[in-house]
Amino acid sequence: MKKILVCEDEAAIRDFIVINLTRGGYDVIEAENGDEAIAKYEECGDLDVVILDIMMPGTRDGFAVCKELRARNAGIGIIILTARTQEMDKVTGLMLGSDDYVTKPFSPSELVARVDALYRRVTIAKSNFESNFKEEIKSGDFVLNLRNRTLLKNGKTIELTQVEFQIMEYFFSNPGQALERGKILSQVWGSAYVGEEKIVDVNIRRLRMKVEDEPSNPKYIVTVWGLGYKWDA
């Protein structure tokens, strides 16, 4: 079964999510606050995707849980739930390591589609890691390992989330080419993705913090004004 953890303190919303994900073929584990979410993660261990509400009671809100899970597991898929008016919550969640966000209120089909897309990315990464797939792509001082989903810079490992890795793989496969935001979005999140292009920009900001010597003055992930980005190593 496809295992997913749903952390939402409002029982009605949580039940709504659980029902629709169960219908979609997921084995759903429930948590009503951040502390319980961490405990369930430690208990289950082999979770594929986590859905986190931001505002929750207890010592850990959704941001804290997101940050902690990402530190423990670079490969797990994380989706945060945000209120439609809370723009900074989306950005903050992405910067802390979430892969995607869904705004409330949301339709069942949208949520399940987002979860399905993220689950596919996570399972592909697991499959490559568990196989003998050892191909590497080299670019300047960087080496992208397609088996263990890591990036090396001058021999030092840079851990990437699934989304970050896919963006880097797209860059490495198209060095020096200006890639439109829409094409990056389609390549990484899928052609059926119904979110906003700005999710690309936030992930680029996060990647620059990891790969650049001076994130505020990037020389590897270069902005192509009015279009998108290019990889220049």
What structural class do the secondary elements suggest? alpha/beta
CATH T-level fold name of the largest domain: Rossmann fold
Name of the level-1 CATH class of the largest domain:
Alpha Beta
CATH architecture of the largest domain: 3-Layer(aba) Sandwich
Please summarize the sheet with the most strands: 5 strands, parallel
Number of domains: 2
User: In sequence order, what are the helices and strands, one letter per element?
Assistant: EHEHEHEHEHEEEEHEHHEE
Low-confidence stretches are none
Q: Helical segment tally?
A: 8
Number of strand elements: 12
Separation of termini? Answer: 41 Å
Instruction: Calculate Rg over CA atoms.
Output: 18 Å
Shape: globular
Name the beta content range.
15-25%
Widest sheet: strand ordering: 2-1-3-4-5
* Helical coverage, percent range: 40-55%
Q: Could you tell me the mean pLDDT? A: 89
Describe this structure in words.
- The chain has eight helices and twelve strands.
- It has 233 residues and is of the alpha/beta class.
- The protein folds into two domains: 2-127, Response regulator (Rossmann fold); 134-231, Winged helix-like DNA-binding domain superfamily/Winged helix DNA-binding domain (Arc Repressor Mutant, subunit A, Orthogonal Bundle), CATH 1.10.10.
- It is globular, with a radius of gyration of 18 Å.
